[in-house]
Amino acid sequence: MTKEVRKTALAMVAGGKGILAMDESTGTIEKRFKEIGVENTEENRRKYRQLLITAPGLGDYISGAILFDETIRQKTADGIPFPRLLEQQGILPGIKVDKGAKPLALFSNETITEGLDGLRERLQEYRSLGAKFAKWRAVIAIGDAIPTKACIKANAHALARYAALCQEADITPIVEPEVLMDGSHAIEKCLEATAQTLASVFKELKGLKVDLKGMVLKPNMVVSGSSCPDQATPEKVADLTVTCFKELVSPKVPGIAFLSGGQSDESATSNLNEMNKKFKGQLPWKLTFSYGRALQRAALKAWNGSDANIKAAQDALLEKAKGYGKAALGEFE
What we know:
The protein has 333 residues and is an alpha/beta fold. The chain has one domain (4-327): Alpha-Beta Barrel (TIM Barrel), CATH 3.20.20.70. The protein has helices at 4-12, 26-36, 42-53, 69-72, 82-88, 119-128, 149-168, 187-207, 234-248, 265-278, 293-303, 310-327, and strands at 18-22, 62-67, 92-96, 101-103, 111-113, 133-140, 172-179, 216-217, 255-258, 286-291. An 8-stranded parallel sheet has the order 8-7-6-3-2-1-10-9. A two-stranded antiparallel sheet has the order 4-5. The longest helix has 21 residues, at 187-207. The chain is globular, with a radius of gyration of 19 Å.
């Protein structure tokens, strides 16, 4: 491991910039394409992703882009590899390396993320393709008698093993423990599960000697369940999230890039903005965003599968990215 992983981590959370998650699996992008009536072919996926990363000036608001295995190997219509194109935009290329959340044996309704087998070799290949950072997502659900301690520990340990392998390969890990917002639970339940998860993750990271200065944390915000009748205000989300993280996230971590986790674009903006506005200058780490749907939703709709709409789609993406960039500074109006 070199100083490069630390340098990359700092660049990923540079002030007023966030991370574009465009690492949807082929199955997930199919769902998104279906909504706009576009056929899920490799060429359509390539065209759509080219549209995103060629948006003029995207690097003003986006520090890094997380790619899928197929995407990191793709090129523009005139033959420029996507990772090189991103670097020309001043954006760091990253790669999703996990193989998805699978049922956790003997634990109903809980999952474990797979993909550690062969990861060392895959990271070497991704590094040769231009990846500067990687991402691994653990999924923690809230429900009757879940999450269990066993599920949290298993996922935290896998995240730490992945992070150690990344740093060994000179790749900066995004550590993503996501407590899902699916459900009708109150915000307090999310707070409890998030606190348990973060405590376990940092214990495992320490145990496996992961350099906390050379990683980025990508967690959920502490929010009400998506179908909870009592939705917490941005003020409450900001207070509970920041209080929880101050207690459990090491000050060595350079930045926290929140996932949107299915929040509406408005909530994803106002919650992040409120945290940065209220706690300006009081936090050891940067608070920014690593959004997928919340950044792409408007662009995908505007594109609608037609080349004639590329500019409109790019404008929609840039508008969202600019707004979230302002929220990352606490300056969104």
